[in-house]
Amino acid sequence: MxxxxxxxxxxxxxxxxxDQSRKGYWLNQFCMSLMKAENRARFKQDxxxxxxxxxxxxxxxxxxxxxxxxWMMRTGxxxxxxxxxxxxxxxSFQQMAGSMTGMSEHQYRDMMVGGGRSPEGNRYQGxxxxxxxxxxxxxxxxxxxxxxxxxLAAQVMADHAASRMxxxxxxxxxxRITASVYTSxxxxxxxxxxxxxxEEAYWKPLFAGYExxxxxxxxxxxxxxxxxxxxHATSFDLGVIPTFAIGTAAEFExxxxxxxxxxxxxxxxxxxLASHIAQSVIQQDFDLTLVNELKVDHGLTVxxxxxxxxxxxxxxxxxxxxxxxxxxxxPSGARCFALGQxxxxxxxxxxxxxxxxxxxxxxxxxxxxxxxxxxxxxxxxNAFLDKLIDDPAAAAAIPHIDxxxxxxxxxxxxxxxxxxxxxxxxxxxxxxxxxxxRFYHVPASNTAVGHLILENN
Length: 457
Description:
The chain is an alpha/beta fold. It has helices at 18-23, 25-33, 37-45, 47-51, 58-66, 69-74, 79-88, 93-99, 105-113, 139-147, 149-168, 187-194, 204-209, 211-219, 271-283, 298-308, 333-348, 378-390, 392-396, 400-407, 415-422, and strands at residues 176-183, 224-229, 244-247, 251-252, 267-268, 289-291, 317-323, 355-361, 434-444, 447-455.
């Protein structure tokens, strides 16, 4: 079923949700640019030239030129961002708010002096309040719609057809998780691939261990990979450290981690599914950070190489999902396990027949800092793999200090595997997954490498 959005029935109100954010991203970024005096001066000097620098839609540019705030909000604008444009024009917030009501500035001011607009009759569409009916539209908006009415009518018909299909074939069109994949994401593996060292004696056993997985992937390729990884001080510095962050953009460029960007394809996202997952998971009381600009580092690209090789373009769309495992406090294994269950529910409520795999990456035992650097614990790693396959709840109960003592300071990355395991059907009462491949290797640079593939039944 589609996500429940009760606010759609509130008259005269546009709620800025994940879909609106995705739609209005560049419009709102343009507005943010006006916080700099030099940008305001350039915009005032030549509006068309300045607007051309931003990859907005033609409709969004037309709405900006018309200064029609209702129109801008319909195309994804948020009032706090749009206020930067109003400020550039010398307008107060009250003047901007009044412009959207169909009242004159004096009428709006008188209404506010009289106590403001009453909620009576304005809680639901179709009531008899004074905020019901069509929104105020500028002449420019009306002219634009007249000149684009064929395209608008076609879009309305397409949306209606999609809605009817969703109702008639509800079970058939839902997305589903077909498998979970677990793998380490060692940066040296990426360097070995990039420098052509995969056949060298040091590296050959590791890459041979992934060959069955690459063959399995050729036969079980998903439409989308939901890839759980951690950013390694690349896109997130100490200025902002989100605990959980989902990439909602259409594409993600490889990051420069100090050696130049890796020679791998850019990652193509699935912004519609990502926005759906974000809204669903947040409604299930998990706080996510939505990221519309994100460069992805080896934590994401190395697993892609291990499972797909080195193609000119990645054969699947990817939703990056970052977890903070760098600065404590980091999320507990139990929290990650429960988050995986929320993600499964979100994916299964998406109205499209997508095959989705969820990947947990990072680990296994390793320590990269201090006199204890180089720590490897084969016995603990393999016991963790056993638990992950047969008793994931026990794996989720492992406390943070055990990861540090037994698997090294960076072994805490393994909590990310629990997000992928929590998303499997058996955790929600379904059948136990089928183990398709298991592999363990020491070392890859400073790290023990673990790998599993579990197929949903």
